[in-house]
Amino acid sequence: MTIACVILNYNDAETTERLVSEIRGYACFSRILLVDNASTDDSLVRLNRLRGGNVEVLAAEKNGGYGAGNNLGVRYAVERCGATHVLIANPDVSFSEACVRKLARIFRNHPRVGVAAARMEDPGFGPFPNGWRLHGLIGELLFMGPVSRRLWKPLLYYPASYLRGKKAVSVGAVHGSMLMTAGEAFLACGGYDESIFLYQEEMVLGQRMKAAGYGSVLLLTDSYRHLHSVSISKSIQDEMARQSLREQSVLYYLEHYLGAGALGKGLARAWFLGIRLEVRIFRGLRAGYHALRKMRKAPAGS
Fold it and tell me: Is the distance from CB of 158 to CB of 119 less than 8 angstroms?
């Protein structure tokens, strides 16, 4: 196996630099490819300073979104660098070399696996159920809502009994912040759908791998840390703007992957109104909580 690592950067060189400093000594990587997704700041200049050894920098001609940027990196890794497998990592993750080697072992033992990921630990949320089912229209809408996702968790995620006592399990999709893919399978299934700018990438990749005859696997014996979507929050700071972009991606996914017609998309739009209300309520509660903490920490008489 020849493993390359692809890291997609957009206006977040600082986070990318941190990850490169952490992993550039990992012997498991033949190449570390930094893809700058047409950043509007000095990211490309800063990333070019990291060149050398097994680190290369690719500059996208335009920002076509998460899928387009990672597709560029994976194609380059496979076609130009001879990689058989590619680890796709967001800049805001942290992982060990041992984790990469355990993921690689899955592919060596199971040739029809197309994607594999380890358990994700998120400081903002704690342990995250990193593998889930591919849902139908109703399930996908429930999965999207912050409250409904928790209320219907037994239907949307795999039960604890499915995971208990196992080293790895087959799943429908895995979280996209860090995953390994077989280069041949990724290119054969078409990779990420470049019509989607951001969000829904995990579902799309799971669907495409399944359609091409490849499986997705969740490794349970190792984990990586995800630093609470640092990169996305920096590039799209407004929470409602992120929500709007998510809705566009879900509508596209419902139509092109789940066959939803006008009625299904109308139901989705109505559902989005409720989710937007949830987002506003949670944002208000969070702001109030932080204001209260700040007041409690303020010195007496200030």
Answer: no
Longest Cα–Cα distance in the chain = 67
Extract the tokens encoding 2.
């020849």
As a whole number of angstroms, the distance between CA 178 and CA 265 comes to 30
Handedness of CA 227, 233, 239, 242 (dihedral sign): negative
Q: In whole angstroms, what is the distance from residue 169 CA to residue 218 CA?
A: 5
What is the distance between the alpha carbons of residues 229 and 27, in angstroms, rounded to a whole number?
A: 27
**C-alpha gyration radius of the chain:** 20
pLDDT tens digits, 42-54? 999 999 999 999 9
Q: What class has domain 3-297?
A: alpha beta
Which positions ≥6 away from 18 have C-beta within 8 Å?
Answer: 91
**Residue 168: φ, ψ to 5°:** -160, 155
For residue 215, which of 127, 109, 140 has the smallest C-alpha distance? 109
Cα separation of the two ends of the chain: 62
**In this predicted model, what pLDDT tens digit does every residue of 68-108 receive, in sequence order?**
999 999 999 999 999 999 999 999 999 999 999 999 999 99
DSSP class of residue 169 equals: E
